[in-house]
Amino acid sequence: MKTILRLLLTALAVVILAKILPGVAVEGYGSAIIVAIVVALLRFIVKPILVVLTLPITIITLGLFLLVINAVIIMMADYFIPGFAVESIWWALLFSLLLSILQSIFHSVLDNKKQ
C-alpha cells in the first residue's frame, strides 16, 4: 500500500512539474502514473549499472555526476513513454532535480502522517 501511495505522489509531482516547466509535457494523469512507474523501474534496474560504469567520473566530480545519471534516466523515460516529452537534457536535469526535491517533501509528509 505504501508503494502505491508513493507512486501516486510521484505521479502528482510529475504533473505539477509538467505544468511549471515549459520544456516538459505530460498528456494526462494516466501518463503521469506510467511515468512514475517507469522512472521507478529505471532507477531500480538501470541506475546501479550506470553508477558502477561511471564510478571514476562520479568520484572525480564528488557525486555531482549522479545528477547527469538521473537526467539520462528521465530521457530514457521520455523515449519509452509516448505521453511524456522532455525537450533537452537540460530540461531533464532540472526536472530530475525538482522531482527529487518534491518526492522528498511528499514522502516526508507521508511518513509524518503515519507516526
Automatic annotation (TrEMBL):
InterPro entries: Phage_holin_4_2 (IPR007165)
Keyword Magnesium: no
Keywords: Membrane, Transmembrane, Transmembrane helix
Membrane spanning stretches: 28-46, 53-77, 89-110
Protein name as catalogued: Phage holin family protein
PANTHER family xrefs: SLR0284 PROTEIN
Residues in coiled coil: none
Record Pfam families: Phage_holin_4_2
